[in-house]
Amino acid sequence: MMTSRSVFVTGASRGIGAAIASDLNKQGYRVVGTARTTRPELEGVSFVQCDVRDPESVRTAVEQAREIVGEIDIVVNCAGIMNDGLLLTQTQEGVQEVLDTNLTGSINVARETVSDMLANKWGRFVFVSSIVALWGSPGQVNYSASKSGLIGVARSLAWELGRAGITSNVVLPGLIETDMIADLSDRRRKEIVSQTALRRTGRPEEVAALVSFLVSEDAGFITGASIPIGGGVGMGV
């Protein structure tokens, strides 16, 4: 595939974000990824340091990205953290950090990058949410709230930007084999898999394949969509 499009991927240093950045690079996109602290090595992908919680950090990172790849055509918001625990044990700081990173951080990035898309009358936003946005999960009030919020963000942007040829969609991964689920107990893992139609966990590359389609020309009539990719988990919601 040959393309001149540029992509800005937050949270590209590992897991799903790294898989997305790598996949798009292999397809010929010019990719800049973000990392909060270090600048990891991912073949063909440039990195800028960015704390999505900080609007000034986002502004600087986007400016640096433009210096590397030019105007930004596509944004994949994948930066996210977890801080699980029952609500009664959660501190205000623990709740706020998750909301600031997962939800407000995505808004910060969208605000800083949308001008390029508006100028070119073409663009793609993809927000990486989670099936728990619809399903809910014990011990994840903060995480579920942040991921649910992304659906509202994406759909609102779909309305705001549709006339400019800009799409805005959400993907909702289920249980994907990344570092984020490394501490999941065997009991909880088996419980989730037992409620998954395909009876297995997913791979980051499978999420990347869906994102690849949503940012392509072929997906130009898809916007405001929330697409589960969880092997059938949570189909009843």
UniProtKB/TrEMBL annotation:
Ketoreductase domain segment(s): 5-179
SUPFAM superfamilies: NAD(P)-binding Rossmann-fold domains
InterPro entries in the cross-refs: KR_dom, NAD(P)-bd_dom_sf, Sc_DH/Rdtase_CS, SDR_fam
Sorted UniProt keywords: Oxidoreductase
PROSITE patterns the UniProt entry points to: ADH_SHORT
Family matches, as SMART domains: PKS_KR
Keyword Oxidoreductase attached: yes
Record has Glycoprotein as a keyword: no
Highest taxon of source: Bacteria
Coiled-coil residue windows: none
Family the UniProt entry places it in: Belongs to the short-chain dehydrogenases/reductases (SDR) family.
UniProt-recorded name of the protein: SDR family oxidoreductase
Annotated organism of origin: Streptomyces camelliae
